[in-house]
Design goal:
0% of the residues lie in helices and 20% in strands. By secondary structure, it is mostly beta strands. The chain is elongated.
Length: 203
């Protein structure tokens, strides 16, 4: 009912009440009540689930799968959200990927303009807005700065990395853990080193 009611676009598909009601863009697909409700000139986007991409107006090449996913996105493009409320508060942040219930959504901080970020896991997010190039993986894991990778939440007690781990930056690398027993490979000398005291160390 009302699906594509006023649409003048090309090759759009809409199923359910008021989906893509006023869309004049082209090559969009929607399934779910009020999905892409206010979309006007957006192209090549897809929304599946109740009110997915609800606020999208002109952003293109977005994919939202799950109720309320990318709900507040307006003009952003190239976002992919999979799961209930994924990237819910994102408005103009582009190039993000979120997988898992509430990924990319923080109930305490409006994450509106994060860009080129990856969130994988239930409520994986950042603690601040306007960050870029952040990768966050794990249940409730949280990124804190741009150009950062976060694996796991604060409850994680060990991380197992298989194969060769390469440190490529020229600056020193800070390592945590019990350096009394742990041994690290020096990127400068290609040898194993150890420190005789517990706590953080620098390689």
């Amino acid at each position: 009912y009302f699906a594509l009611r006023f649409s003048n676009g090309v090759e759009n598909s809409a199923f359910r009440y008021a989906a893509a009601e006023d869309c004049t863009g082209s090559f969009n697909s929607t399934f779910g009540s009020n999905a892409m409700l206010v979309t006007t000139t957006a192209n090549y986007s897809c929304a599946f689930g109740r009110q997915a991409l609800y606020s999208l107006s002109t952003g293109s090449q977005n994919c939202a799968f799950g109720a309320f996913s990318l709900y507040n996105t307006t003009t952003a493009s190239n976002n992919s959200a999979f799961g209930y409320e994924t990237l819910y508060n994102n408005t103009t942040g582009a190039g993000n990927v979120a997988v898992g219930r509430g990924a990319g959504y923080n109930a305490g901080v409006l994450l509106q303009t994060n860009a080129n970020c990856v969130f994988i896991g239930y409520q994986a997010n950042t603690n601040a807005n306007a960050l870029t190039n952040v990768i966050v993986i794990g249940y409730t894991a949280q990124g804190t700065a741009s150009n950062q990778v976060t694996l796991g939440n604060a409850a994680i007690t060990s991380t197992i990395l298989r194969g060769t781990v390469t440190l490529t930056t020229a600056s020193a690398h800070t390592l945590g853990g019990d350096l009394t027993t742990d041994r690290w490979l020096s990127s400068a000398t290609n040898t194993l080193i150890g420190v005789g005291v517990a706590g953080a160390g620098t390689l």
